[in-house]
Design goal:
mainly beta, SH3 type barrels, 12% helix
Length: 76
């Protein structure tokens, strides 16, 4: 499980982080499936247990239970 307090401290220290996460998408038959994505981690909301990432120019909120891994951003 991701420790949001630790992640928040890392972001406050200006670390560039990347989040690997499972994102729910609808399949052709209407069922929910998950795809794995990566995006720049922008912020966290500890009380709401959410992480905010940038994906293709949009800002998405990700539930903490959908987070897979947090790593230093590529190229930093």
């Amino acid at each position: 499980m991701v420790n949001l307090s630790d992640v928040n401290a890392r972001l406050d220290a200006d670390e560039n982080l990347e989040l690997k996460y499972r994102f729910p998408v609808r399949s052709a038959n209407g069922e929910v499936e998950y795809e794995t994505r990566k995006g720049k981690l922008l912020d966290v909301a500890e009380e709401a247990s959410l992480l905010y990432v940038s994906h293709e120019g949009e800002i998405l909120w990700i539930k903490v239970e959908e987070a897979v891994e947090i790593t230093p951003a590529s190229g930093t």
